[in-house]
Amino acid sequence: MKKITLALNWKLYLNELESIEFVEKINHSKNQFDLIDLEIYPSATAIRSVRNVLNHSSIKIGLQDFSIFEKGAFTGSLSLSSIEIDCCIVGHSERRDFYNENDNLILKKLQISNAKKISTILCVGESLNEKEEGLSKERIKSQLSILKNLDIQIPLTIAYEPIWAIGTGEVPSKEYISDMLSTIKSELNTLYSHEKNSALRLFYGGSVDETNIRNLSDIVLLDGFLIGSAGSKFEKLMKMVNNLI
Q1: pLDDT tens sequence across 73-119
Q2: Is the pTM of this model over 0.90?
Q3: Helix, strand, coil shares of the chain as percentages rounded to 5?
Q4: Is 161 a catalytic residue?
Q5: In whole angstroms, what is the distance from residue 109 CA to residue 219 CA?
Q6: Active site residue: 101, 126, 130, 161, which one?
Q7: Which residue in 169, 178, 161 sits closest to 126, CA to CA?
Q8: 92 is catalytic
Q9: Domain architecture of the chain: domains with CATH
Q10: Given 92, 94, 101, 210, which residue is catalytic?
Q11: pLDDT, tens digit, for every residue of 45-54?
């Protein structure tokens, strides 16, 4: 059985103290995390505390998002150089929708993380309207088209997150996810060499929890999951881990 990666996007679910408490629980159960790869994306204000408390060296800590500005008079911004991290997320649908991030901005962020050689998750996914109009694959291909301007030098992950499934409890069928991942894989084959393409990972995200993760993990092309709210609850995380090992 292949080793699955769980990437926990804590969004704004946990504050600094709650993040520390969560990581302390991981420390006490760390042997159970040896058979999976774990990435944690805390709130930016909790990253330093999480890193200081965590005593499992194989667990990676990352930024949920970052600014295209390195330093200077940019109030409220956070650059990749602001704090020590292992990985980052780019293009999450909440950034696209709530903060009006377009493909040009997302490409700039990818170019920055690529130049700094920071492992990056690029999120792609279609809206409910696009799905109902049969435009899902076209939307994914459009979002991936920015990669033609990126000579990847980093471990890159594409996370397929249908917008209509995020936080709704509505999970696509395994066949649907598999078909979309195949589309992503085919598109990547047109952009990169076999050597680079073989190093790319494919994740699924969208209402993943302890009740469905084992079934979804059977999808052949799937390397891991980008998990939101369920990943911010330790008991749910442990159930997901136990269902995978």
Answers
A1: 999 999 999 999 999 999 999 999 999 999 999 999 999 999 999 99
A2: yes
A3: 45, 15, 40
A4: yes
A5: 30
A6: 161
A7: 161
A8: yes
A9: 5-244 (3.20.20.70)
A10: 92
A11: 999 999 999 9
